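Consider the tokenized backbone below.
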């Protein structure tokens, strides 16, 4: 604790933190680069070099169980969930080598550069189709009406969810995200648990259908590896989580990016600057706030000992604003030479396997939007707010006109 700030204020759910954490994070980087947050029940790393080194040290900092924030589940909810109470325990981001090495090898088969490039046309078409419908209206809520739909549909097609089931899947994915990743009151937990079990049955059914009759989708590819490389549970968890990834991360990043570009007056984005501009937007307004790890032994850093077994947050949000790596970090610099050194996709062995697909979607959406809505602007008089979350940063709504 120092005279004008207290590291215990590190409450990622507090309104002021959600709205504007950066001056506070700057003070932490300078004076408390490692500290324990009572609020979070975790140590927090705030400097770019430390966050990167932590991602690069899977032996000292384990991913096992780091995503499963299910500690808040009541005994009754746990009973209802039965064997699924520790859902995600076999998900690729939630395990260490050697399991991770095996899982990662299998998942990567679906994300080859060729497979990713092949999705561009489909994604472009989905964006054009959406704008055909919306453009004549002249206004929209970017978050609920523009940002999500193309990504959600692309992910569903990639996985192999039939179009008629998309809405069902979308609502259940939202429920399980709430159940496992944010604390809920007991009664609500039970409702969400039922929804989650229904969803698991659905994914099970999809896997069984593809085992019998393979198609050219992710579910078929992963199902074909069951027995040799993957277990049934690993495949179900992979499919579920990738559906979630597509439903949330890319749309959040796109919303943050469009807001930034409109505020900076850079619209439409000149094609020659698009790639670097999207990296700079990810650096300055990243959709991922960081990743959790557990210390596997006592770790000593900047005079602080992180005890073995303790939870650690690698704050990529703070790392992206580290003035020693990104001069004048709170300023948007469209041609910042090292913008891509942000850690929004993580780093090291767990580096986001969907990063190329995420980047492709961002660039494609910005291209289509810039061309179809060149006069896009923020609707006047709105209060722009971010959702409260410990893992992601995304807008609640964004009213735009054109
Ligand atoms: C802008 C969009 C995205 C952001 C900001 C993002 C962020 C991240 C981060 C920070 C990690 C590392 C987690 C850790 O180290 O604990 C990660 C891993 C992962 N991401 Fe993404 N992601 C995005 C898009 C996607 C997409 C589109 C997919 C799939 C369709 C995806 C699938 C995954 C998977 C499977 C992992 C686990 C990789 C592993 O553990 O080896 N992500 N992502």
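A designed sequence for it:
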């Amino acid at each position: 604790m120092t005279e004008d700030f207290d590291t215990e204020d590190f409450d990622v759910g507090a309104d002021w933190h959600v709205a504007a954490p950066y001056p506070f994070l700057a003070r932490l980087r300078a004076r408390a680069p490692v500290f324990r947050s009572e609020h979070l029940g975790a140590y927090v790393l705030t400097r770019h070099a430390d966050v990167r080194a932590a991602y690069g040290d899977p032996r000292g900092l384990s991913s096992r169980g780091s995503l499963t924030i299910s500690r808040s589940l009541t005994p009754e909810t746990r009973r209802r969930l039965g064997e699924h109470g520790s859902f995600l325990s076999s998900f690729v981001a939630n395990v260490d080598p050697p399991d991770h090495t095996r899982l990662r090898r299998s998942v990567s088969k679906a994300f080859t550069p060729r497979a990713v490039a092949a999705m561009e046309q489909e994604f472009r078409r989905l964006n054009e189709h959406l704008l055909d419908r919306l453009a004549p209206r002249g206004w929209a809520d970017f978050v609920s009406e523009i940002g999500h739909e193309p990504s959600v549909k692309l992910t569903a097609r990639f996985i192999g969810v039939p179009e008629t089931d998309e809405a069902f899947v979308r609502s259940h994915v939202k429920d399980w995200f709430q159940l496992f990743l944010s604390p809920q009151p007991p009664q609500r937990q039970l409702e969400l648990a039922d929804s989650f079990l229904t969803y698991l049955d659905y994914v099970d059914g999809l896997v069984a259908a593809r085992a019998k009759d393979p198609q050219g989708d992710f579910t078929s590819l992963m199902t074909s590896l069951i027995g040799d490389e993957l277990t049934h549970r690993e495949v179900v968890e992979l499919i579920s989580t990738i559906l979630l990834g597509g439903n949330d991360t890319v749309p959040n990043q796109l919303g943050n990016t469009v807001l930034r570009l409109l505020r900076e007056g850079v619209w439409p984005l000149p094609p020659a600057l698009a790639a670097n501009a999207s990296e700079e937007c990810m650096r300055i307004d990243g959709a991922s706030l960081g990743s959790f790890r557990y210390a596997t032994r006592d770790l000593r850093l900047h005079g602080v000992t992180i005890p073995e077994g303790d939870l650690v947050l690698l704050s990529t949000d703070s790392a992206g604003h580290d003035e020693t790596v990104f001069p004048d970090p709170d300023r948007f610099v469209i041609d910042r030479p090292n913008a891509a050194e942000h850690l929004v996709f993580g780093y090291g062995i767990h580096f986001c396997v969907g990063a190329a697909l995420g980047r492709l979607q961002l660039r494609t959406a910005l291209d289509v939007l810039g061309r179809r809505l060149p006069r896009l602007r923020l609707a006047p008089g709105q209060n722009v707010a971010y959702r409260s979350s410990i893992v992601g940063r995304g807008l609640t709504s964004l009213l735009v006109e054109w």
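The domain at 7-401 is CATH 1.10.630.10 (Cytochrome p450).
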